[in-house]
């Protein structure tokens, strides 16, 4: 990239039951972030807000977000779908040279005002799929899990082991809404089936929350923080909508998004050059599919990775030390949260979940059925 861009600071809030208005949540979050950095809204050149009309329940979702986020009478734009798209768009605006500072804010009230499964139904083809009533987010996820199991010989217990690790990791994350410090595969097995082979504890929890992040050009970033996190590369790719027209056991779009980000970042061997990864997986089975597509592990290795603890906090490739989407899933902003968790790691602010010596991190995002749309950002403590 022709201009160095860095993340200055991040802030998050998550709950399984929001007891204040969404606007108050946004005001407190953004004001707290500004106070932490020592700036006001007037120090921000551009605002990028991320939310979804379906979730909010009215059109132009950002109309009531501008004021609490400090974007009124300022340069402001809105991004739907996943929050990483907003972060990538914000980065491109800064790369243009027209801005030196930017605030990106993503939010969702997926626990209190809507049900994510219902919203996902509206992404289905309205002429056939939606009316037939066979496909939904859970049934298609179950088909994808089965496809991976059939192709690579994985077992349901492999996915339960992944879910248990994520729940244990979530216990180290102050932002998680669901966790279990001593979780085992047996605990996941004991939870109810939603769609076979998807157990309840292997699926994302409904979450209210928001994530805010300040980005800046290189010179300005150094003025605002002594620990800027540099954006080294990013990529984006979308696969075909129809699940029957792609190999669900792998993810072509995740692989292509990763390749684009790696090329910009100068990454040739992600398994060796990346220290920690935050993968956006709504379901435990998605973690190996995406991680493998991104070159972090060999294809079809879910069982080996789980049994040997390779993705554990102390493993060779720690994946989702935060607990990932199984600890909390802010529906629209989840990809932005994954970026924020990488920032926490690279700033050394991850507490008990800190990966020692982490210098390069990968954040991943997804949207659509069976992770149809994927995004990747590579972050580093090193400039240039």
Lay out the secondary structure.
Elements: E1 5-15, H1 22-37, E2 46-50, H2 53-56, E3 76-79, H3 83-95, E4 101-109, H4 116-121, H5 129-132, H6 137-152, H7 156-170, H8 185-190, E5 193-195, E6 198-199, E7 208-217, H9 218-224, E8 229-238, H10 252-265, H11 270-273, E9 276-278, H12 286-293, H13 302-308, H14 324-327, H15 334-346, E10 360-367, E11 373-380
Parallel strand pairs: 2-3, 2-4, 9-10
Antiparallel strand pairs: 1-7, 1-8, 4-7, 5-6, 8-11, 10-11
Describe the structure.
The chain is α/β, with parallel strands linked by helices and 384 residues long. It has a domain at 5-114 and 206-224: Peroxisomal Thiolase, Chain A, domain 1. Helix content is 36%, strand content 19%. The chain contains 15 helices and 11 strands. It has helices at 22-37, 53-56, 83-95, 116-121, 129-132, 137-152, 156-170, 185-190, 218-224, 252-265, 270-273, 286-293, 302-308, 324-327, 334-346; strands at residues 5-15, 46-50, 76-79, 101-109, 193-195, 198-199, 208-217, 229-238, 276-278, 360-367, 373-380. The strands form 2 sheets. The chain has a 9-stranded mixed sheet. The longest helix has 16 residues, at 22-37. The radius of gyration is 19 Å and the shape is globular. The mean pLDDT is 96.
